[in-house]
Amino acid sequence: MDIPYTVEVRRDTGLTNGKIGIWLFLASEVMLFGALFASYILIRTGAPSWPRGDTILNVPLATFNTLVLISSSVTMVMAWASLMRHRFGTFRIYMGATILLGFVFLVVKYFEYSHKFENGLYPSTNNFLAIYFTLTGLHMLHVFGGMMVNAYFLGPGSKLWKTNPEWFANRVEHSGLFWHFVDLVWIFLFPTLYLL
Amino acid sequence: MTSDHAADIDRHVRVYITVFGALMALTIITVVVSRFHLPVPIAVSVALLVATIKGSLVACYFMHLISEKKLIYAVLMLTAVFFVALLALPAVTVHNGYWIH
Questions:
Q1: What's the pLDDT score for residue A174?
Q2: Which of A24, A183, A184 lies at the smallest CB-CB distance from B75?
Q3: For burial by CB atoms within 10 Å, which of A38, A75, A188, B48 has the most?
Q4: Residue B45 CB coordination number (10 Å)
Q5: Burial A21-46 (b: 16+ CB within 10 A, else e)
Q6: Residue-range domains of chain A with CATH
Q7: A130-167 pLDDT, tens per residue?
Q8: What digits encode the pLDDT tens for the residues B14-31?
Q9: Nearest to B27 among A27, A46, A70 (CB)
Q10: Considering only CB atoms, which chain B residues are within 8 Å of A184?
Q11: Among residues B20, B45, B19, B21, which one has the least CA distance to residue B34?
Q12: Which chain A residues are within 8 Å of B40, Cβ to Cβ?
């Protein structure tokens, strides 16, 4: 039996099921990160003193990573636009670039984390580092998850393009929505943790 | 693919490139402003304002929220209400500078 409303929109919602599904998932993600941001505010406002992020963390590396993640959002949306133009070869290039940029982001975070551990700075060291490792660690998991899904659409999942291109384009759009959300979270994490 | 559809996608792509430039510029502005070591309330306000502008650009144009269906807006409005309530919790748990136990 075919999955209903993958391409055609439902009359009651005006949306495909995949589209409403990914937005409901993102709504739950907003609450997940929202709880952690609320924890950050609670811990910071309750602390007698709080360090400036740039005295402990590496701002140039994080700035570079911000530019990397923003670039990956552009390549992601260009991958989807390529499918809308029926240019599968261009889609592969942009999707490959998106995964590569995600990988660069994780490599930079690896060096950041390694440097902290070498200097004896762990989540247990103080509240600032606890919230830093929790928020960035959870965010990294999201980057990794998004990369896996994108890799699937670049590899085995792309077979769908031959049989049902419209459905494949919708799936890539939904994957893109998740990827942009991950970018969106980092846009707020960067100044909150590194610059204030 | 009709020529109208192709032109529409081309227009979208031009918007994506413009938004990309704006996001890059705003990131640099955020970092430069942080080097002025402004008082904390002003620094927080500026950083969050710039982050909100950047986030809005991503949501509106990359996530196509600028032209989405009503149901998606309804879901996000409900989420926003709970999100704001969650962030406001620290404020309502503090009374005269002391934690309410």
A1: 98
A2: A24
A3: A75
A4: 12
A5: ebbeebbebbeebbebbbbbbbeeee
A6: 17-195 (1.20.120.80)
A7: 999 999 999 999 999 999 999 999 999 999 999 999 99
A8: 999 999 999 999 999 999
A9: A70
A10: 55, 58-59
A11: B45
A12: 196
Q: Would you say A95 and A153 are in contact if contact means Cβ atoms under 8 Å apart?
A: yes
User: Residue A114 CA to chain centroid, in angstroms?
Assistant: 22
**Torsion sign over Cα B56, B61, B67, B70:** negative
- Give the separation between CA A133 and CA A139, rounded to whole angstroms: 10
β-partners of residue B95 are B98
Question: What's the rounded Cα separation, in Å, for the pair A57 and B46?
Answer: 20
Please, are residues A73 and B58 in contact by the beta-carbon 8 Å criterion?
Answer: yes
- Here the tokens at position A165 are 């291109």
The predicted complex's ipTM stands at 0.93
